[in-house]
Amino acid sequence: MIAFLYEPGAIPGRPGFDMNMTSHPIHIVFAGGGTGGHLFPGLAVAQAVGREFPDVRVTFVGSGKPLERRHVCGAGFDYRELPCQPMPRRPWHVPGFVAKNLAGFLAARRFLRETHVGAVVGLGGYASVPVARAAKGCGARLILLEQNVVPGRATRWLARSADAVCVAFEPTVARLRCRKRVEVTGTPIRHGFTTRVQSGEQGGPRRLLILGGSGGAQSLNENVPRALYMIRRELARWEIVHQAGEAGVEATRSLYGKLGLDAMVVPFLRNMDRVLRQTDLAVCRAGGSTLAELAAVGVPAVLLPYPHAADDHQAHNAELFRTVGGCPVLDERQIEGRLDESLSGVLSGLVADGRRRERIAYTLRRLGRPDATESVSRILFDLLGISTHPAGDWSIFRREDVFGGRASTENMDLSPSTPQGGQSHFRGVGAR
Q1: What pLDDT, on a 0 to 100 scale, did the predictor assign at position 422?
Q2: What angle do CA 390, 381, 149 make, to 5 degrees?
Q3: Nearest to 290 by CA among 366, 202, 216
Q4: What H or E segment, with its residue span, contains residue 384?
Q5: What's the Cα-to-Cα distance from 306 to each of 50, 150, 285, 287, 329, rounded to whole Å?
Q6: Is pLDDT of 201 > 90?
Q7: pTM beyond 0.85, yes or no
Q8: What's the rounded mean pLDDT across residues 312-330?
Q9: Least confident of 43-57, 98-112, 146-160, 294-308
Q10: What residues does 141 pair with on adjacent strands?
Q11: Beta carbons within 10 angstroms of residue 160's beta carbon
Q12: Could you give the CA distance from residue 41 to residue 47 in angstroms, rounded to a whole number?
C-alpha cells in the first residue's frame, strides 16, 4: 500500500516539495460533470488512479445534479456540491450569474486550500469553471479534458491557465490557445469497453441499440420507433434496446407498444460496456464520449447530431466520424421531409448489409484510443511529480522546478527498512 503524503503548501511537482514531509495524502479533485459525456471520462481516470495508487484521495465537485451524485457515489468516490450557474441568455440574469459563480469560486478556493489539493482535473461544462479557476491561486496543477472536435467554452476559457489540456482529436489542437502542453490522448473511457462479440454469430438475435445520451433525446424517442415500424419485417431477427432517459422512458415505451414493436426501453444503461460488446448497430447522438465508446468497441452507428449543441460541436464530431469512420450521418436541420422516413431508409440498408456494418466497425476502431485513460493518467502523475519504477514495484515523487526539469534523487533514502511487525516501509518511497 502506498501512502503519498505532503505538508500544507508543499505541492508535488512544485518547488519546495520535500519527500520527507509526510502529513497529508495527495488529493486530486475532478471538477465538472452535468452530463454523462463530461462525467464518465473523469470517472475513468479516477478509477485508473485508484487502481494504480489506492492511497490517493479523490473528490468529485459538481453542480449537484442527481446523475453526478449517483454515478460518483456508486463508484465509491466522495462528492461535493458547489454553487455554479451556466452563462445566462438574458441580460437581467447576469447579476445572479455573477453572484452565484463568485460564491462558487470562493467556496472552491476555501475547499482546495483546506484539503490540500495537489491537482484539479477539469471535465468541461460550467460546473468545472469555479474549481478550475481557483486551482491556480491555490498552487494546484490544472489539467483539462476535452472530448469534442470543437472545444467547449469552459475549455477555451481555462486553457490559457492550464498545465495540460488532453484532447480527443488532432483538429482540436489548432482551436486552443494554451501556454503549456496540449496532448492528443483520445477520450478516457471506463474499464470494460473491448471489442464486441457479433451476436448473430452465436445463434441469437442481432441487437439494435438506440442512445440519446445520458438524459435521452426527445427527437430520437419520437422518430426512431416510427422508423423501425417502417422496416419491421427486416427486423424480425433483431432485438431493440432503447435508452430513453428518465423523462422520456414512459412515453417511448408506450409508443413502441402502440406500434406493436417489442423493445426493451430503459431510462439509463448502467452496464454500457457489456451492452455495446453485444450490439450490432447503434442509432445515437454524436457526443464525444459516446463516440469514443463506440469506436473502442467497434460498433457501427447512424449518427444524428444534436442540432442545438453549443458551437454545433456534435455536428463536427459526426462529420469526422463520417469521413474517417464511414458512419452515416443524418442532420435534422438538413433533411427534406420527415426524419423517421429518412432514418428508416438508412437503417434498412444497414440492417440488410452485414458486410457494410463490418466495414464501418473496422474503420471506427481506427478512431478508437483504447489507451486514452492510461495516457491521461500518466500526464496527471507527471504533473504531480509521481514516477513509477519500470519494474512497477515502487512509486516515488519527483521534485520538479517550474519549467518541468527533473531534480536528482541522490539525497533521497530509497533503501528499505523493516520495523517490528515485519511491514516494510521506505522514507520517500511507498511500497505496494
Answers
A1: 38
A2: 115
A3: 216
A4: helix 372-384
A5: 34, 14, 6, 8, 11
A6: no
A7: no
A8: 95
A9: 98-112
A10: 119
A11: 12
A12: 10
